[in-house]
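>> received
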Amino acid sequence: MSECLHTALCLAARGLPVLPLRVGKVPFGNCPACANNACGGRSNMKYPGPCTCKAPCHGWAAATTDPHIINSPTWARSWRKAAAVAYHPGGAGLTVVDLDNPDAIAWAQQTLPSTQTVATTRGEHWIYQGVMGSVNAVRPGVDIKSTMGYARWIGQGTGTMTALPEAVRALAVRQPSPVRPAPQAVTVPAGGAGGGGDCRHRTPAFLERGIAMAEQQITEASSAIHSTVYRTFLAVLSAHGRCGCLTDAHVARLFAAAQAKGESPRHCTDAWTNARTRLGL
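>> returned
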């Protein structure tokens, strides 16, 4: 029995829904039957459904406490390749405040009630009793992992777990900003259309397919959300940004997909601006 499998079974016996992680601290990719959400089930991060697939290929929604599933031949293949074990905090009635650097830890020590604390590679996990939505980047270096999210199991930690405070719940409430920039349509730089005439990107199906693929890439990301959003924005602008085809509606769709994954409006705007700057738009 692998060390990861042994750990997973011990955690499941304590009521923590578990799943294997591959190298890079990310879940295993979907099986062919569930690729691109073809199953219509648990891989859909916003609306997880009753997929019958028994493989651990649905991110947080695959987490389970059932030892028969964890020990099944389908899961055994993943455990042999697993680099770590993760758990679904919300499924165990918990919320993890992921503090990613010393500044974030200092903020928590001054702001949040003490609770069970687990040291991570770069920071700490503060674990509270109670559930809420998972939200990334609620402040610099701080992510919240609870429902519809997963956290890597590092160890038991120290301290006594306390109730989820309102101060943490308040972090997830998006406050309206009077300076929030609206998504901007991309204009054509001089000579950027490549000779004039009708642009192939104006074919509705071509442009729609590109935007839909970008939305899907962001929606299905299970980690590194900041990087995924930036790379996706960069790819969209690389393909469609020099001919003036993108409209406010297209950009708003991309921003909405990113914000549904927990990105703030400011992070969306920064990622869009940085991608444009890199491409010289």
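>> The radius of gyration is 21 Å.
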